[in-house]
Amino acid sequence: MASRKPSTDDTTHKLKEDLHHLTQTIEDLVSATADDSRSNIKELRARAEKRLKETRDRLESRGERLYDEARDSVTHQVDACDRYVHDNPWTSVGLGAAAGIVIGMLIGRR
């Protein structure tokens, strides 16, 4: 059974939800500091720290996953380019020469 990759929209929605929960907990903590009840403040502080750690862990995990996906995509594209150059060396030389001529003409206009 293949696992479904979360889409960018799903990831963005989950991130917004995590940040909303974290913000709400921090707002509760700030509101509770107006009250002098020490046990209430300790409980809200513990909740805020827990949510902050969970959110940080999720963000790190998502960042690592996005980095891995980008690295794999770039590696695949580099491999495809390398195969094309090896399969079509004269076409590649021609494209390189044409690009060099165009760049040379643009620089020469200055």
From TrEMBL:
User: Which cellular components does GO assign to this protein?
Assistant: plasma membrane
Q: A Gene Ontology MF term for this entry?
A: ribosome binding
Q: Which residues form a coiled coil?
A: 34-69
Q: Where is the DUF883 domain?
A: 13-59, 82-110
Q: Which residues cross the membrane?
A: 90-108
In terms of Gene3D superfamilies, this protein maps to:
Apolipoprotein
Alphabetized UniProt keyword annotations = Cell inner membrane, Cell membrane, Coiled coil, Membrane, Transmembrane, Transmembrane helix
Q: How does it sit in the membrane?
A: Single-pass membrane protein
Q: Where in the cell is it found?
A: Cell inner membrane
What the entry lists under InterPro entries is as follows:
DUF883_C (IPR043605), DUF883_N (IPR043604), YqjD/ElaB (IPR010279)
Asked if the Swiss-Prot or TrEMBL record annotates the protein with the keyword Transferase, the reply is no
Q: What family is reported? A: Belongs to the ElaB/YgaM/YqjD family.
Q: State what protein this is by name.
A: DUF883 domain-containing protein
Q: Which organism is it from?
A: Halomonas chromatireducens
